[in-house]
Amino acid sequence: MKKTFTINLSGTVFHIDDDAYDKLNTYIAQINKHFRNDADAKEIVADIESRIAELFQERLKNGKEVVSIDQVNEIIVIMGMPESFDDSTEEEKETSNSTSSSSTTKNRRLYRDPESKILGGVCGGLSAYFSIDPVFIRLFFVLLVFLGAGSSILIYLILWIIVPKATNSAQRLEMKGEPVNINNISKNIKEEFQEVKEMANKIKSEKPYLREKAESLVNIFISIIKIALRVFAIIFGIIMVIVALLAVIVLITSMLITDEFLGITPFGGDVTQYLNLFVSSTTLFWFWLGAGLAIGIPLLVLAYWGIKILFKIRTDTRSLRLSALGLWVLGIILVFAMTIKAVGNFKVTSSVTKQIPITTKSDTVYLKLGNNELGDAIESHLNFGKLRIAKLNGKNFLVDEPTLDIVKSDNGQFGLVVKTKARGKNLDAAQQNASEITYKLDVQDSLISFQSNFLLLDKTAYHNQDVSYILKVPENKTIYLSPEMTKIIHDIKNTSDMWDGDMGDKYWTMKPEGLELSQRKQVSSDQNTAIKKR
């Protein structure tokens, strides 16, 4: 039974017998000692360890998991002892070179050569594998493309993908067919460092000339940038001045002359003249003033900056900046304050209820819509749901539609309740707004004529006003709904569960369960016309 250790060699973990570990550890210590005085010792030792790891992996196949002493001895023979590679005589160098050349074709492997690559290093790798100048390989691929063999591009791409890149000295030696041992690895790394050193010395010797040229190019580039920025600043300044001044002119003209704000009319060309129907004129004035400051001050500042850029004005404008900032903040405060005030006018809801008696000896009450006196006055292109705007005698009014509901009477008599409702900033204001609603209603014996619209008085702003009619019908009494009544009836409950839109032109009798569709003969067209004329 043997002890085993776990080691990490060049990023790969191996299990190794204790005697093999001692042997390998001594061997790597000798390598470190041999190259300790070389400037590139670290890179040499790392590549040697990488090669040893590759050799271990090749031998740990077919179920083998532990590196033995025999495998370590075999790898030491392949890599060689450091003492045997001292460059003491020229004869030993020639012997080593002849040995390398004799084993070149035998141990050569295909890699992509990153040191002589143009694209992926495929041609460089093929040239090293076949000992051909890479120029001929590249010419061969190019000629295949021009001769119509487009598959050469595909072949190149496939080789680029499947052929590994030579990333360390051991792989570069395998690519060239040279034995991968300590001597060749160290020699390869030293040659690479020598090339880098020579390149650095060349750059250093040419540094004064290159620095002078670089400084000259930088100065030219800076001059071009300065000129371009100056031209851009002039153009930008002109644009800022023109745009800002035009915007200010439009702003002032819109607010003081055309009664519009910057021409903003989202619902048509004359919507802004209707705003005082929704907001009081005082609130609207201060809101427009705040909006003018909030928008106009930045535009004026923009124009001022443009003038400064154009004429290179350098003055202390701290007081001007503070004044502009103060006016802009004032504008923002006015906009928010007026918005809050307008919203506050909808804080409280109140209603006014009026009882209208219906005196008739008839068992049937007829309901109809009167002539629509506001029909031609209503602006058809402006509507906000049921809310409309009407123009009467040159003045604008808000117009809305009432609703009608029918319930069972609790006193055995016909009765009509009119309920007006509105919002306000307090209870008194809400009640006043509700009482100022204008509606028309005509009760003549058994005929009730409604208007399809109600009107808000002149100078009365919108406060969510509403008018609802409630008709109370005794049991076993009948009502008749004319066809046009479907415009204002709202969710009337009936035993037939009939939709409001289908309840018109029918008789309905109040039963204990609710309104019931009557079997009475429907009104003829002549009778309907007579009802309308009454």
List keywords for this structure.
534 residues, alpha+beta, five-stranded antiparallel beta sheet, 15 helices, elongated
Structure description:
The protein has 534 residues and is an alpha+beta fold. Helices cover 48% and strands 19% of the residues. The chain is built from 15 helices and 18 strands. Strands 12-13-5-16-17-18 form a 6-stranded mixed beta sheet, with no helix packed on it. A hairpin with a 2-residue loop joins strand 1 and strand 2. Helix 2 crosses helix 3 and helix 2 runs antiparallel to helix 10.
What percent strand? 15-25%
Q: Give, in spatial order, the strands making up the sheet with the most strands.
A: 12-13-5-16-17-18
What's the story with the biggest beta sheet?
6 strands, mixed
* Overall average residue pLDDT: 77
Q: Determine the structural class based on helices, strands and strand pairing.
A: alpha+beta
Oligomer: single chain
Silhouette: elongated
State the helicity in percent bands: 40-55%
- What is the C-alpha radius of gyration, as a whole number of Å? 50 Å
SS element count, helices: 15
Low-confidence residue ranges: 87-106, 257-269
Could you give the distance between the termini? Answer: 123 Å
How many β strands by DSSP? 18
Quick summary:
This protein starts with a strand and ends with a helix. The chain contains 15 helices and 18 strands. Helix content is 48%, strand content 19%.
Q: Layout of SSEs?
A:
Layout (H helix, E strand, L loop, with lengths): L3 E6 L2 E6 H17 L6 H19 L6 E2 L1 H11 L10 H13 L1 H4 L14 H9 L3 H13 L4 H12 L6 H8 L5 H24 L1 H50 L24 H31 L6 H27 L3 E10 L6 E6 L8 E7 L2 E6 L2 E6 L2 E6 L6 E10 L2 H9 L1 E2 L2 E4 L2 E4 L3 E3 L9 E8 L4 E4 L24 E6 L2 E4 L7 H9 L1
Parallel strand pairs: 2-3, 5-13, 5-16, 9-15
Antiparallel strand pairs: 1-2, 4-10, 6-7, 7-8, 8-14, 10-15, 11-14, 12-13, 16-17, 17-18
